[in-house]
Amino acid sequence: METFIQKSYAAYSTEDSIRLRSSSGGFFSLCSEYVLQKGGVIYGVTMSKDCYTAEYIRVDSANDLKKLCGSKYLQANLGRTFQSVKKDLENDLVVLFSGTGCYVNGLETFLSKKYDNLICIDVVCHGVPSPKLWREYAKFQESKHGKLEQINFRAKEEGWKKFGMKENHLYIPREKDPFMNMFLDDFCLRPSCYKCRAKKYRLSDISIADFWGIEKVTPEMNDGMGTSLIIVRTEKGQKLFDSIKEKLNWKEVDYNEAIRENPAEYRSAIRPLQRDTFFSDLQSRSFNFMIRKYAPDTKKIRLRNLWRKAKRIVKKIVRGGVTPKTNSNYGIFFIFQS
Ligand SMILES: Cc1cc2nc3c(=O)[nH]c(=O)nc-3n(C[C@H](O)[C@H](O)[C@H](O)COP(=O)(O)OP(=O)(O)OC[C@H]3O[C@@H](n4cnc5c(N)ncnc54)[C@H](O)[C@@H]3O)c2cc1C
Ligand code: SF4
């Protein structure tokens, strides 16, 4: 039997609506739609109704697929997902399991045998934040804006690269959001993320990532709405890619070039010296304290913006005119019940 040679692609869905609801190019959605059409089921991560936790669900209809779209930046609760996957596999259903590399490796170990009807897709990730940090942050935001009803960690209001968070209708530019800053500074990752075994040992059929650095590798595949980097690791993965490629704009790329600006594919995050203090502070201190200590720039930026906004309001009152509301740059998108 010929050995399978890993292939890498830049790709995105030909449908803009799919790309908009996805973190990068919407490749995951297309794979899922295909598996559902074949009568299969999908396992992936959604946010709970109260928006406090990320959790696995099983999806067997296209209507529910959008619940899985987009990255949720916190560790997902598995519950009895592995047992449920096994039951579906034993019942001869085609199963697409998606998640971080460590969860895919965990599932394969749990199953302890190969199933032809199982396809695993992992997201290349640099780590998952602590669920407690997310809860504290969500409560802090709710104390100011009302009940959180919807969260999008990768809102593309200002494009894919300048993504931000959208909490209900509130859009927060990434660099102004304390949670995002604590995440991107690596203070709050799970301990295993600093020594990630999945970087060297992946059991997935396909890995998907944001194609950071695309402008240097294949600029014609970058229109600012999001392009996925697809790394096909097995023959089964290649078959899936070939089955959906008609619905993609795609181009094969060199693996080493493609991952140059994406260290999350091959290197673990560096554990910051303050990580332990960060978590002991999180236990005992207020979220305001956490912002001052661990995301001071965002605090400074927010105060500066508040000052500017106050000046604008004063000017408006003095002039007696009305200025339209605008979103600033890019950020997180939240929906609160006021
Ligand atoms: C925590 C996390 C960190 C990431 N870090 C990086 C990175 O450093 N560099 C990079 O290039 N890409 C990273 N990604 C991957 C990237 O953001 C996109 O998920 C990927 O490009 C696929 O996008 P898509 O448009 O095909 O599909 P999307 O619709 O965006 O993909 C959704 C998929 O992500 C899964 N997912 C969402 N949240 C979680 C979660 N908390 N745990 C497990 N699975 C989850 C869903 O089950 C689904 O399979 C990360 C993703 C996550 C979840
Ligand atoms: S960095 Fe590694 S250990 Fe951490 S969530 Fe991602 S795959 Fe798992």
Describe the protein:
This protein is of the alpha/beta class. The chain folds into two domains: 1-127 and 193-261, Aspartate Aminotransferase, domain 2 (3-Layer(aba) Sandwich), CATH 3.40.640; 129-188 and 277-338, no CATH class. Helices cover 36% and strands 22% of the residues. The protein is built from twelve helices and 13 strands. The strands form two sheets. A nine-stranded mixed β-sheet has the order 4-3-2-5-6-10-11-1-12, sandwiched between helices. It has a four-stranded antiparallel barrel with strand order 7-8-9-13. A hairpin with an 8-residue loop joins strand 7 (147-155) and strand 8 (164-167). Mean pLDDT is 90; it is low at 321-331. It binds flavin-adenine dinucleotide and iron/sulfur cluster. The site of iron/sulfur cluster has 11 residues, from helix 4.
